[in-house]
Amino acid sequence: MSLLGIHLTLLIGPTVPVPALPPLMEALESVEVTHSDEGRSGFQITFQAGRSGPSDLVDYALFRSPQVKTFNRVILIVTINATPRVLMDGIMTHLQLSPSNQPGASTLVITGEDISVMMDREEKSVEHPSQGESMIALKLIAAYGQYGLIPLVIPPAMLDPAPPTERIPVQQGTDRQYLEEMARRHAYVFYVTPGPAPLANIAYWGPPVRMGIPQRALSVNLGAETNVESINFRNSALEPTLVSGKIQDRDTNKSTPVQSFASTRPPLASQPDWSVNQPNVRRTKFRQSGLNRAQALARAQAMTDASVDSVVAEGELDALRYGDLLKPRGLVGLRGAGFSHDGFWYVKRVTHTIRKESYRQRFTLTREGLGATTPVVTP
Asked: What 8-state DSSP symbol labels residue 280?
């Protein structure tokens, strides 16, 4: 599918995907891909599913295609400004046929999830003796090398070794569930992002990426420079949470206080809500047990860090005017919305909707408060 300088390539196959057959590409109507830093990313591809001629009397032609089978691998590549980008690498999990009495109105919808769905197929009861959480994460990801997973694991600041004489980490659930469970203890995220090349994927287990080179700026109300078609902001002052309590230190067997005072994440706002509203910030009790003091402090800090993104921006842009793909799980600059909302944001979620006549990107941005931390952002 070509769209005024943007070209979409569709690869489908049981093991090694190959270019979609011409009948599939001719019937392609729309593509929707959603990437998020929480939960699996997904895709939905809609085809026109008409029946015509003697060969279609038995069944729809699309259903006779060997490429339209559940658990086939699907790769979507978008070429924009002559640069190919892997938009999705996933597994086909659902087929939905909607016949219609109106000519040309029947549709076949293929729905799937990113490669990490294959890590969520088997519940296990597995022990991981003498292994810290980052080592366990590396081991679990490495077991899926046949899907091109490249592990990128960031060890937490507070390592949590597990001497077998004290305890043995036990996994109860699927590999993906256990990776997410371990990530939540440190306010980390786990996700699989496609690329940088076809058939390759980065499996990331670590903190949200709030540092690095920001993407091309989103521009609001800037005349010819405008690339955002709509945007709205909301601020939930009840989100930030400070944690306090006491634990019985398992090493010393003494009662010791546990408390968090501020967020340790790199600031994106000059007026973070957890600081500006300090007297009214929500406070919760730390109720975990079986930890030493250092581990408890790390868990309490993770609870605070996970809660501080109280300002959310949602909007939509035209990919043709933006001239690039907005990628989640990283930073982007925003300009033209006023000092309170300009500056850098963390891109939490992006949904790409591609049709023959348009390419739209809906986005969700987050940060911890109002006020820009820089006078300008990269255009």
From this structure: G
Distance from C-alpha of 266 to C-alpha of 268, rounded to nearest angstrom? 7
Q: Could you count the other beta carbons within 10 Å of the beta carbon of residue 292?
A: 16
Q: What is the predicted pLDDT for the residue at 320?
A: 86
Q: Which two tokens stand for residue 314?
A: 């949602």
Same topology between domain 122-206 and domain 215-234+310-370: no
Residue with tokens 């920001």: 214
Encoding tokens for residue 160? 């949590």
> Half-sphere exposure (CA, 13 Å, Cβ side) for 6?
23
In this prediction, residue 279 carries a pLDDT of: 85
Angle at 363 between CA 331 and CA 234, to 5 degrees: 90
CB atoms within 10 A of CB 19: 14
Architecture of the domain spanning 122-206: 3-Layer(bab) Sandwich (3.55)
215-234+310-370 under CATH 2.30.300.10, yes or no:
yes
Q: Which residues pair with 90 in a beta bridge?
A: 74, 114
As a CATH number, domain 2-118 is: 2.40.10.10
* 3-class SS string, 89-153: EEEEEEEEEECCCCCCCCEEEEEEEEHHHHHHCCCEEEECCCCCHHHHHHHHHHCCHHHCEEEEE
- Mean pLDDT per 10-residue interval, the chain, length 379 residues: 74 90 89 90 90 61 82 94 91 90 82 95 90 92 93 84 74 94 91 92 93 93 92 93 92 90 92 89 90 88 92 94 91 95 96 91 96 88
Greatest extent of the chain over all pairs of C-alpha atoms, in Å: 82
Q: Six-digit token pair at 83?
A: 């640069």
Q: Rounded to whole angstroms, how far apart are CA atoms 186 and 182?
A: 7
Q: Are 98 and 109 in contact (CB under 8 A)?
A: yes
Q: Residue 291's pLDDT is what?
A: 85
Strand order, beta sheet including 149-153: 149-153, 201-206, 189-194
What integer pLDDT is reported at residue 86 of this predicted model?
95
